[in-house]
Amino acid sequence: MNTSDTKWSDLAVRMGSATVLVIVGLAGVAIGGHAFNVMVALICGLSVWELVRMLTPRTPAVAWQLALLSGVALLLSGYLPAGWALPVLLAPMMVGFGQLSQHRTIFMSYAVLVQLAGFGMMSVRDELGFGWMLWLVVVVVVTDVVGYFAGRMIGGPKFWPRVSPKKTWSGTAAGWVGAAVVGWITMIVTGATSELIGISIAISMASQMGDIAESAIKRHMGVKDSSTLIPGHGGFLDRFDGMMGASVFLLIVGQIIGFPPGLV
């Protein structure tokens, strides 16, 4: 098999899994309400399960307990006033700190991001509606897809070879361009100001940071994928790490700059 074949060897499986994820994800976003909240809670709960399995693989019972607790806490937070939702979101991390015997700091830091990301996604869908949730998803997906193809077609210097050996600067930059195009189109459709283009690029960068953070954890723990739950993609953390980074960023920055720009 030549080098070109190797580059694209996983494309069919990846595309098949991605198609299923897109269909289910879009259905959840479109339906919204309880269905969307349950979907997000399930994804985040499974992500916590994968995280604990990577950090302490010999404690499967603890992984399931923390996953269930995290998922339930996140789901409840979506129906509570924000002030009461925050301690509910953080409670599973405190429980995990007491149950895990090692890598507690990594667990607490990353699990908090998972919970905040889930809360951010539910907030965007509930408060801003289908259109803006779709914008967020499309920015992250385009960043990933454009970066994937550009990185393999153009190649060039690696972004951070020790942590993420497949990522290139060409793919990274191409993701920003793709996000800018999404922002420009959304600006025209919604009547938002041109700041949306800059925000879209920043969201793209935040999604890449989420990806890099998860890659660093995997490299530190000596594992290739967070799990094997999604064929061709690894686990839910592998697939949704970018979405989590983007969602947390929007949750924080949206309170500072006023979002959507020009429409609030």
Automatic annotation (TrEMBL):
EC number: 2.7.7.41
Catalytic activity: a 1,2-diacyl-sn-glycero-3-phosphate + CTP + H(+) = a CDP-1,2-diacyl-sn-glycerol + diphosphate
GO biological process: CDP-diacylglycerol biosynthetic process
Keyword Lyase applies: no
Transmembrane segments: 20-49, 61-78, 107-124, 130-150, 171-190, 243-263
Keywords annotated in UniProt: Cell membrane, Lipid biosynthesis, Lipid metabolism, Membrane, Nucleotidyltransferase, Phospholipid biosynthesis, Phospholipid metabolism, Transferase, Transmembrane, Transmembrane helix
Pfam assignment, any one: CTP_transf_1
InterPro entries in the record: PC_trans
Gene Ontology MF terms in the entry: phosphatidate cytidylyltransferase activity
Pathway(s) where this gene product acts: Lipid metabolism; Phospholipid metabolism; CDP-diacylglycerol biosynthesis; CDP-diacylglycerol from sn-glycerol 3-phosphate: step 3/3
Annotated Gene Ontology cellular component terms: plasma membrane
Family membership noted in the UniProt record: Belongs to the CDS family.
Protein name per the record: Phosphatidate cytidylyltransferase
Organism in which the protein naturally occurs: Pseudosulfitobacter pseudonitzschiae
